[in-house]
Amino acid sequence: RVYWYNGILARIDPGQYGMASSSLSMADTLKDMGGGDDEDMMEMGYNDGAHGREPKHPDNEYYMTNYNDGRKYGE
Asked: If you write DSSP's letter for every residue of 13-41 in order, what string do you get?
């Protein structure tokens, strides 16, 4: 069990757990894919739409989809 647990931790974030791994980690993949920025953009879009604000990021698909939902279903 310890072997597999340590292997999993090494794949998640080798720097945090002090284990070196030559394979690509989950942390590397998340960083390469842009982290959680899309979720933040979605939340910002919904909130801006719900409060009747002008869209700040009209070129971002995630923002605008949630902006329109916020206008429809928001406060």
From this structure: -HHHHT---SSPPHHHHHHHTTTTHHHHH
